[in-house]
Give the backbone structure.
Amino acid sequence: MTAVLFTCAGQRVDIVTAFSRAGATTIATDVDQLAPALYHADRRALVPRVDDAGYIGALRDLVALHDVRLIVPLTDLDHLQLAQARDDLGGAVVLVPGEETIARCADKFLAHEFFEAEGIGSPPTWLPGRLPEEVRYPVLVKARRGFGSRHIYRAADARELEFFLAYTAADSMVQAQCRGEEFSVDVFCDLEGRCLAAIPRTMIESKGGESIKGMTIKDPELVEFGCKVAEALGIIGPANVQCFREPDGELQVTDVNPRFGGGFPLPTAAGSRYPELALALANGERPEPRLGDFREGVLMTRFFSQVILEESGGTLEAAPEQAEAVPGDA
């Protein structure tokens, strides 16, 4: 069985369990012993913070201990550290893109400039000191490095724009508000940046920037757009492309997250086989693209769940009533 190390596991029980069902041995890490995903993995480990000098060393030790073949980050927090240490992690395949791609995805203004240069649709976007004389409202004041829909404010006119630019504590940009329908495209690329799969889904409802209700759709234009964006950026592994189809039909990308998206359970249920593709890459295989190979009309509606823990021998363990739901031990 292929051993997979998940970093910053947090609440991503869905991803850890999907890899387990795909046949992987799962090792989850986090800085917080109460991270729920730790208790749904075959093995778990507490590691230093991602900005600690010992972080990469701790991961390297786990790679050696468990013969890890694949490292999958579950948030954006350690992408840069993992990319920089790619050749220093015991030969494990690290499922993150290069440093330049990470920088572009992290900074939404840099991403906008890149998309414009590549001829990829992106909403008109300006830095606060470079606004045109005529601005079409409404516009959004958005943090350049924001996530989870934080530090986003809608300005209906010049007065509100001036207020929100003064109010926000984040390094921000101003972006025209899209007027069309919003979609997400979950893509997966191989180690050469070749797009292997792209699954579009509707955004029926989101909370905190994360999709909680949606449906897969077979839209060839969205599939092609997701692939174009991913390959232009040089994505390695998973990414979530967020975009709008404007009233004139143009597709405009608003954000790209180079990781498994919050709506991961939906493409998984629709037959994405993204865990199987990742495991194939870890084992030196070169899978062929499978664009369009998924079920449309699959709906997702998400809910809260929990892990119940009890102290045993000085460590936290899943309570007996959860024994069947939690596959691993310490």
User: Anything to note?
Assistant: The chain has a mean pLDDT of 94. The chain has nine helices and 18 strands.
